[in-house]
Amino acid sequence: MSANHNGRGNALESERGGKIFLKLVFNELYRLFRIAMSDTKEFINGSPQYGVNIALCRKGSPVFGVIYLPEDKALYFGTDKIPAVKASVQPGVASFSGVDEIRASQLPASARTGHYICLASKSARTKATEDYYKALTERIPGAEILPMGSCVKYCTLAEGLADEYTRMGSVMEWDTAAGDALLRSLGMPLRSIETGEPLMYNKQVLRSSDFTVKNPAREL
């Protein structure tokens, strides 16, 4: 192949090279997304409550989170600079529509008939968690323990449709980082039950500790 010393020719070669690189990146991301979705317990079990999680962590904190729920055609994202937003996404369409800012304070308790809702995992329930739920329902009359799959729980909290999610048991950082970023953008970080501090990420051991997240407007 002969060398091209023309400036425009070099620019065109760079543009073509950039497009090839981007295509390779997008193909790899698509491959990873497919693996992420097919490896989700809820997806495998045929439940509509599954999603794709993407998060960016900086200095141990999640600063950008994206959750896409294919069955609902809904995409949620939030950053440390922008409060969480929700967009409707049609498959195969590159643009979003109906983007609405969502804040927990915009949905008062009366919109949910006033009873306290604590979300629970559908597939990962430990004895310690069950004991906590039992104590919660005894402490708060009328409290509801609502099982829900996957990252849908974080989206439900972000929309102000539940008050709490507490989990005790093994969970990996990549299962919580996107939802944590989404909720942190609304002032609701996932907190370690042991220390009370927000969860840290990119640790040497990529497991999240037992945690809880509560809507501060409804915390009892």
> What characteristic shape results from the CA principal axes?
globular
Subunit organisation of the chains: single chain
Poorly predicted ranges: 1-15, 28-39, 101-111
Strand content: 25-35%
Cα gyration radius (Å): 21 Å
The count of strands amounts to 12
Give the neighbour order of strands across the main sheet. Answer: 1-2-3-4-5
Alpha-beta classification: alpha+beta
Write the element-wise H/E pattern from the N-terminal end onward. Answer: HHEEEEEEHEHEEHEEE
Percent range for helical residues? Answer: 25-40%
Instruction: Give a short account of the largest sheet.
Output: 5 strands, antiparallel
Span between termini = 72 Å
Count of helix runs: 5
Mean pLDDT: 76
Structure commentary:
This protein is of the alpha+beta class and 220 residues long. The protein is built from 5 helices and 12 strands. It has helices at 7-38, 41-44, 127-139, 152-158, 173-184; strands spanning 52-58, 61-69, 74-79, 85-88, 97-101, 117-121, 144-148, 164-167, 171-172, 191-192, 207-208, 211-214. The chain has a 5-stranded antiparallel sheet. The chain has a 5-stranded mixed sheet with strand order 7-6-8-12-10, sandwiched between helices. A hairpin with a 4-residue loop joins strand 2 (61-69) and strand 3 (74-79). Helix 4 packs parallel to helix 5. It is globular, with a radius of gyration of 21 Å. The model is unreliable at 1-15, 28-39 and 101-111 (pLDDT under 50).
